[in-house]
């Protein structure tokens, strides 16, 4: 008997998609991207995405405050909308709680969610409540909009495009490691930086909208599952290959400090750590100066060239400074709910 762990998260998504009837013409983008794109009666497309947070899978109540959790629940959904160049509008929240949950938990959760959705320009407009006999489950559905001419999908990367990423990579993984090892001696500034990046990531919403406005980005996703995994998603959808240049990876001093204490290579966390919620995108080399100038001048956000789109291959090639290359092939090299990674 085949079990879901044998398929893995992305294999299961493919199986589900294959079992469903073909979507109607008003579904512009269905299963396979992080956001569904729907054609309505107005000029703009509707965007719809959802993400679930499960206690003891995504968060621990012993290390995350309800307020922090509320901020993150919204932020990770806003990040998906940002990666399409869209605008968040309305959110629905389904909340499954054990009956003995302290009401203060709910108050803190909704305070965090309310603040984060207001920062994004949206509103929580409804949802659902249910009793559950085990861990807390929070599922948020976020709807938004995007002008068709500004929408950016995973597919669209072109041969010769450069691969860029905003901000820095590996900080969230460093924060997770530090939460698990509070006894580690780390500078206060580094500790604060990486733990905040893990517990309360800030989506690159304005950056995504600016990139959509420029009109030169061919494909985009947010770094949620891990850099290698998310570039694999872009390459697979675009039917191209990709290479990452390790020496170009933007890794913060805080991440490097934690990795050194952990006896780990910070570049490994940058490649596969996940939950950085930076924007990963491809664009022609000639457009890179304008992209970097726009993000820096308008948002103060750095962006870095970390690789190139190449001929189609069976995975993503990671090139090290010494010339050694490693091919990550055969599926995700990042977070997968069912495969154990």
Q: Gist?
A:
The chain is an alpha+beta fold.
CATH architecture of the largest domain: Alpha-Beta Complex
Give a count of the beta strands, DSSP E runs of length 2 or more.
Answer: 13
By CATH reckoning, the class of the largest domain would read Alpha Beta
DSSP helical segment count: 10
- Give the ordered list of helices and strands: HEEEHEHEEEHHHEHEHHEHEEE
Binding site for Mg(2+) 1: 51, 128
Binding site for ATP: 110, 127-128, 154, 224
Protein name: Thiamine-monophosphate kinase
Binding site for Mg(2+) 3: 34, 80, 222
Describe this structure in words.
With 341 residues, this protein is an alpha+beta fold. The protein has two domains: 118 residues, 2-Layer Sandwich (60s Ribosomal Protein L30, Chain: A), CATH 3.30.1330; 168 residues, Phosphoribosyl-aminoimidazole Synthetase, Chain A, domain 2 (Alpha-Beta Complex), CATH 3.90.650. It has ten helices and 13 strands. The strands form two sheets. A seven-stranded mixed sheet has the order 8-10-7-11-9-12-13. Helix 2 packs parallel to helix 3 and helix 5 packs across helix 8.
């Amino acid at each position: 008997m085949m079990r879901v762990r044998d398929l893995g998260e992305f294999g299961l998504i493919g199986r589900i998609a294959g079992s469903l009837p073909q979507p109607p013409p008003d579904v512009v983008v269905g299963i396979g991207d992080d956001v569904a794109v729907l054609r309505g009666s107005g000029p703009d497309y509707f965007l719809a995405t959802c993400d679930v947070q499960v206690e003891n899978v995504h968060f621990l109540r012993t290390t995350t405050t309800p307020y922090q959790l509320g901020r993150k629940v919204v932020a990770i959904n806003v990040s998906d909308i940002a990666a399409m160049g869209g605008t968040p509008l309305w959110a629905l929240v389904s909340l499954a709680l054990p009956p003995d949950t302290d009401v203060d938990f709910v108050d803190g959760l909704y305070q965090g969610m309310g603040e984060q959705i207001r920062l994004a320009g949206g509103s929580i407009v409804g949802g659902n409540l249910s009793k559950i006999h085990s861990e807390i489950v929070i599922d948020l559905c976020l709807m938004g909009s995007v002008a068709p001419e500004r929408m950016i999908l995973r597919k669209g990367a072109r041969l010769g495009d450069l691969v860029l990423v905003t901000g820095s990579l590996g900080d969230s993984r460093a924060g997770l490691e530090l939460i698990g090892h509070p006894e580690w001696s780390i500078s206060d500034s580094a500790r604060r930086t990486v733990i905040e990046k893990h517990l309360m990531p800030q989506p690159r919403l304005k950056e995504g909208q600016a990139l959509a406005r420029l009109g030169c980005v061919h494909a985009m996703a947010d770094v949620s599952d891990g850099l290698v995994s998310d570039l694999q998603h872009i390459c697979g959808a675009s039917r191209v290959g990709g290479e990452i240049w390790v020496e170009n990876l933007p890794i913060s001093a805080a991440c490097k400090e934690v990795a050194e204490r952990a006896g780990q290579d910070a570049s490994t966390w940058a490649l596969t750590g996940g939950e950085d919620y930076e924007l990963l995108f491809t664009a022609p080399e000639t457009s890179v100066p304008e992209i970097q100038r726009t993000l820096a001048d308008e948002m103060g956000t750095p962006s870095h060239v970390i690789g190139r789109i190449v001929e189609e291959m069976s995975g993503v090639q990671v090139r090290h400074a010494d010339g050694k290359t490693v091919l990550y092939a055969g599926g995700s090299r990042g977070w997968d709910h069912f495969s154990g990674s």
